[in-house]
């Protein structure tokens, strides 16, 4: 079942100020993480990744993931400090058609003379709030006895 993208996560995805990282794994299990400003909300509880280079590592790894049931991770870091990790899987690649054409026209209007290899559709499986206070609260709840020695009251 796909995870729900909340309005604050959608705002992060669609903001030009957000740092967006796509992490994939190649056929040998080697990780690859790359900044992807072209990553945004697909409008239907999915995430779209515009891939401009046919032979990029991300494109090859996404192809491997869709063929063999692999997953990806997306890290978002907003200008306000809001951090989110989205774990998901590629479910489709558009290389033609209305969705591809819409993104192709928009990319050329904003970026100039660029090609568009395809538009990847990522279905989110899990959305994790990665703000420090949230992570710390989860870790403290899961491991209440883990405390650094200098914090133990005497």
Q: Main beta sheet, described?
A: 7 strands, antiparallel
Net shape: globular
Low-confidence stretches: none
What is the structural class?
Answer: alpha+beta
What order do the SSEs take from the amino end to the carboxyl end, as H and E? HEEEEHEEHEH
Radius of gyration: 18 Å
The termini sit apart by 48 Å
Mean pLDDT across all amino acids = 89
Please give the number of β-strands: 7
**Beta-strand fraction estimate:** 25-35%
* Strand line-up in the sheet with most strands: 2-1-5-6-7-4-3
Helix content: 25-40%
Count of runs of 4 or more consecutive helical residues = 4
Can you characterise this structure?
This protein has 154 residues and is α+β, with helices and mostly antiparallel strands. It has helices spanning 7-14, 57-68, 98-111, 132-142, and strands at 19-25, 31-35, 39-41, 47-51, 72-77, 83-94, 118-129. A seven-stranded antiparallel sheet has the order 2-1-5-6-7-4-3. The N and C termini lie far apart (48 Å). The mean pLDDT is 89.
